[in-house]
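Trying the structure run again after the queue cleared.
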Amino acid sequence: MKIAEFGQLQMTRTNAAHTGVSKLTDIAGAPLNSIPSSAENGISGTRKSFQNYLIDAMNSMNQQQIAVSNMSEQMITDPDSVDIHDVTIAMSKARMSLNLAQSVIDRLVTGWNEISTTR
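Done. Tokens:
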């Protein structure tokens, strides 16, 4: 399964009882070719760390905010060159990504506080 914001996700199956009988498919229903042998052993050099996922997500959110700012500026300077619907959709996407980032940050802080208080 491939998600643009998160890169290639891999599922590691370490126990034969967990493999099931169905084949892995992507979102469109097309069968995945195979799981790399390194992923079967639980070792993969292509995996991203949690930190990299967060940095990529923040960069994506930042790019959306910049794009909305540029579209708004273009809407003010040359209103005929930009469709108002595109600006509205871009603003909604940017607002949703900002809300998602805020939720993730809140959850991380809450989780860290719970871990630190249980010591």
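Residues 84-117 form the longest helix (34 residues). Worth checking whether this holds up in the mutant runs.
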